[in-house]
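name: query_chain
kind: protein
chains: 1
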Amino acid sequence: MRPGQGSAGDGGGGPTGASGRPCRGSSWKALVFDLDDTLYPEESYVWSGFRAVARWLEEQGALPEAQAFEAMESAFRRGVRNRIFDGLLASLPGAGALRVDTMVQVYRTHVPELALFPGMADLLQEAKAEGLGLGLISDGWLASQERKVEALGLERWFDPILLTDRWGRDAWKPNPLAFCRAQAALGAGPAGLVYIGNDPAKDFQAPAALGWDSVRLIMPGQLERPGLGAQPTFQAAGIRELRNLLWGPPGDRG
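structure:
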């Protein structure tokens, strides 16, 4: 974070802005959220996908479901992020008929079991009650993201819901295309918009270029996000700090 901004572990006076300037949540007309590891813990999607693949492997007679899941989970916890399925198949004798691309398809198209971060639904409901617009911008393979949106019931809160893969891989963040579309759909100027995400490698460049504010939301259990593309305007360690950033501490609210 830039000097004067709060950090996830400082335990200090809550969310702060760049160079110590006052928080400006009261000027925001619409909140635009990221999806993965912002609204819900992305790790839960990983476990859900591994369970789907493990069930499929058992159906193929390759490996008991529990054993397959344990192998994938163990690899993920060791820090493996690519080729988990390749490694699993390589360890199975007689797995020549099984294909990694089929496992990937099972993973991406399964119906996930997901839940919002605790307190997130209340925050979204309060934002709606306050008359704030709510939009969603998310990267990722379209089939996967559509199923996440449905599993979490996000249509009840968000409009527009902009899944960047609809326009192809080149439209993923930090491409500003979805942000421009969100701004037009929400009918607010740049000063009235804020993007709330978690990934400093890609979430905050487009909002900064368009004149939006941005918030990096730090939540327990988020997957590690290496790299830094742009600094957020604010940082909030948890939903309580995000609420304070939006509406001020409880004692200061009207």
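note: DSSP finds nine helices and seven strands in the chain.
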